[in-house]
Specification:
Layout (H helix, E strand, L loop, with lengths): L8 E5 L8 H13 L3 E3 L8 H11 L3 H8 L2 E5 L10 H15 L4 E7 L6 H5 L4 H10 L3 E8 L2 H9 L5 E5 L10 H9 L3 E5 L6 H4 L6 E2 L2 E2 L2 H16 L4 H10 L6 E5 L3 H11 L5 H9 L17
Parallel strand pairs: 1-2, 1-10, 2-3, 3-4, 4-5, 5-6, 6-7, 7-10
Antiparallel strand pairs: 8-9
Bound molecules: NADP nicotinamide-adenine-dinucleotide phosphate.
Length: 307
């Protein structure tokens, strides 16, 4: 088993890119592409607009910048939006669509994205989605392949298949939920690349505890908002912000290679880089531990059994 010491990097998430004004979106794409960070997109983000806008951003760069930037775009294959089909044929079509929108021939990493409409058995079977990903890796279209989803028991089953090089899990390694910790350790020890997405829980840990706050794309409970208010007090007492600490939790974790954060504008990118540079005093971690576990809304217990 390996236990490499690898630097954890920021990965810029683009799930919302292309859902608003196109000119502003291309400007954001150019800023992300020039930042020299990895970029995370998917076939289905903003109905395909995320990849299309990244493609327009790439086209706006000078040739030498474009080649380097294109090597940093990670994408994902998705089920057919009309039929829900998610087999080998759909994977091949999905990647063809992605390469066309991005204007590239290869990607450094291609994830199987949110494989909820097929069972693990179906995905791993002959003619299943994973066989096409393996073929795309053999052909060099994808340098590496991964699986990206939420539920930890589901990801663990893909991990046990030993067929991938990377895993991405979201909302499950944050200040309020650490349920991905042991799966991340397992993946890290197998030498896989580990990506932790949504370190702000999509809202609560970026904008702070308040009425209407959301975690994991759903309204946060009063108990969770109260717990987060206590955590924010700890941060404030030590002169650091809640989002800076939320980000640092992921960036300091040795089993995580990349922390994937949603970035919606050049200003957000600047703010994110500032947050990432914050030095968090050790006492903050001790005091947060002393609060005890947060009342996380995530319950993945339904995903452990075989279909
Ligand atoms: N299954 C999967 O593969 C999967 C699932 C989830 C996420 N992901 C990836 O991970 C990325 C991150 O996930 P996420 O965007 O859902 O969650 P996130 O990174 O935890 O949170 C992003 C949210 O935080 C807000 N935010 C960020 N910085 C802020 C600041 N300085 N002040 C106020 N608000 C701030 C953003 O607001 P604005 O929108 O206003 O900027 C955005 O709504 C996605 O874009 C995607 O690439 C993958």
């Amino acid at each position: 088993m390996t236990s490499r010491q690898r630097p954890t990097v920021l990965v810029l998430g683009t799930s919302g890119l292309g859902s608003g004004d196109e000119e502003a979106a291309v400007e954001t794409a150019v800023a992300l592409l020039r930042s020299e960070h990895l970029i995370d997109t998917s076939n289905n983000y903003s109905g395909g607009a995320s990849e299309r806008i990244l493609g327009l951003g790439l086209a706006a760069l000078a040739p030498e910048e474009r080649i380097a930037a294109a090597r940093r775009i990670i994408t994902k294959v998705d089920r057919d939006p009309e039929t829900g089909r998610f087999d080998a044929d759909r994977v091949l079509r999905s990647v063809e669509e992605s390469l066309g929108r991005l204007g590239v021939d290869t990607v450094p990493l291609l994830h199987l994205h949110d494989p909820y409409v097929v069972t693990v058995r179906e995905a791993l079977a002959r003619g299943g989605a994973v066989s096409a990903l393996v073929r795309l890796r053999e052909e060099g279209v994808a340098a590496t392949i991964g699986v990206a989803a939420g539920p930890v028991p589901l990801l663990q089953r893909y991990l046990d298949s030993e067929l991938f090089d990377a895993v991405l899990c979201h909302n499950r390694y944050t200040l309020v939920d650490r349920s991905a910790a042991s799966m991340f350790r397992d993946a890290h020890e197998r030498g896989w690349q580990v990506f932790n997405a949504a370190p702000f829980g999509g809202d609560l840990l970026a904008r702070g505890p308040r009425a209407g706050a959301r975690y994991h794309y759903r309204p946060a409970s009063e108990e969770l908002v109260d717990w987060t208010a206590q955590a924010e007090l700890v941060c404030t007492r030590h002169g650091v912000s809640l989002p800076a600490v939320a980000l640092a939790l992921s960036l300091r974790e040795q089993t995580i290679d990349g922390t994937v954060v949603g970035v919606s504008s050049p200003a957000r990118l600047d703010a994110l880089l500032q947050l990432a540079a914050t030095v968090v005093p050790d006492a903050v971690w001790d005091e947060l531990d002393a609060l005890g576990p947060a009342p996380s809304p995530i319950d993945d217990s339904g995903y452990g059994d075989d279909e």
